[in-house]
Amino acid sequence: LATGLQPEQHGVWRAEESWPGGLRPIGRASWRAAPLWTRLEAAGIRTGVVAWPGSRPGADWGGLVVDDSFAEASGTTAQAWALPRRCVPEQLRETLRRRRVHPTQITAAMLRPLVPALETIDQSRDADLPRLAVGLAAGATTQSAAAWMLAQVEPAPEAVFIHHAALGAARAGFEGRPAPFDGVVAGAWRFVDALVGRLAALAGPETLLLVVSPGWRGAPGVMLA
Q1: CA 89 from chain center: how many Å?
Q2: Calpha distance 162→35 (Å, rounded)
Q3: Other C-beta atoms within 10 Å of 128: how many?
Q4: Which residues pair with residue 17 across a beta bridge?
Q5: Are strands 222-224 and 208-213 parallel, antiparallel or unpaired?
Q6: What pLDDT does residue 193 have?
Q7: Which of the four, 53, 67, 98, 158, has the lowest number of CB atoms within 10 Å?
Q8: CA dihedral 123, 128, 129, 134 (to 10 degrees)
Q9: Which residues, including other chains, have CB under 8 Å from residue 156's CB and lie 6 or more apart?
Q10: Nearest partner of 163 among 35, 51, 1, judged by Cα
């Protein structure tokens, strides 16, 4: 989707790669073919990218790139969550820092649409609800950066590429699970649908908007343009 080429040609096809220092996350140096946003920038078209795999460090690209480390929460609270170095253009660090959602900020009301029987779960013993909160927080953080890019950046990007990992994360953790987690995947579809609806409402009529939310092990995801 990003290059029009197969993995053997573009080189970005796994989460980590080997290098002389051992293993590192894939990033800008991993690409052996130019992604579409760099080709558009070279043609004079303003672009924005949010959370695309292999996009770190975001500050090193042309255009406006919020890389895929931006939504990866760390620390036990929002205040303790360090913003990764160079994950966004330097002049936007403080603006975008405030737009993140930490898993501890995900409330029961936010979880209930995915887990209607929330009150039946012993949260002192359960590890699945925190995992679900992490996924929702990452989705909300990605969405917040994308919405800011579409609504508040002047001049607005003319082409925006957004990677929402919510469906793949929900399927990987909850596909085929019994109650009370049997509705998580369906809830994740509704969650992504709401995110896409909001993005469509914010995008100008001439804006190219590409939203991808991958599936997992052959289960479907979404690609909308």
Answers
A1: 17
A2: 13
A3: 16
A4: 24
A5: antiparallel
A6: 95
A7: 98
A8: 140
A9: 46, 149, 150, 204, 207
A10: 51
Give the residue ranges of DSSP H helices in the chain: 7-10, 36-42, 93-97, 108-111, 128-151, 166-174, 184-202
Cα angle vertex 103, ends 116, 97, to 5°?
A: 140
Contact 198, 164 (CB under 8 A): no
Asked if pLDDT for residue 70 goes beyond 90, the answer is yes
Give CB contacts under 8 A, 24+ apart, made by 38-44: 38/62, 38/63, 40/158, 40/159
The residue with tokens 């190219």 is: 208
Residue 35, amino acid: P
The Cα 89–Cα 81 span in angstroms is: 18
- What pLDDT shows up at residue 9? 94
Instruction: Give the position of tokens 């991993």.
Output: 30
Alpha-carbon distance of 207 to 200, in angstroms, equals: 10
Both structure tokens of 4? 């029009």
What does the chain come to in residues?
A: 225
Sign of CA dihedral 142, 147, 150, 153: negative
- Percent pLDDT > 90 in the chain is 88
Over residues 176-196, the pLDDT tens digits come to: 999 999 999 999 999 999 999
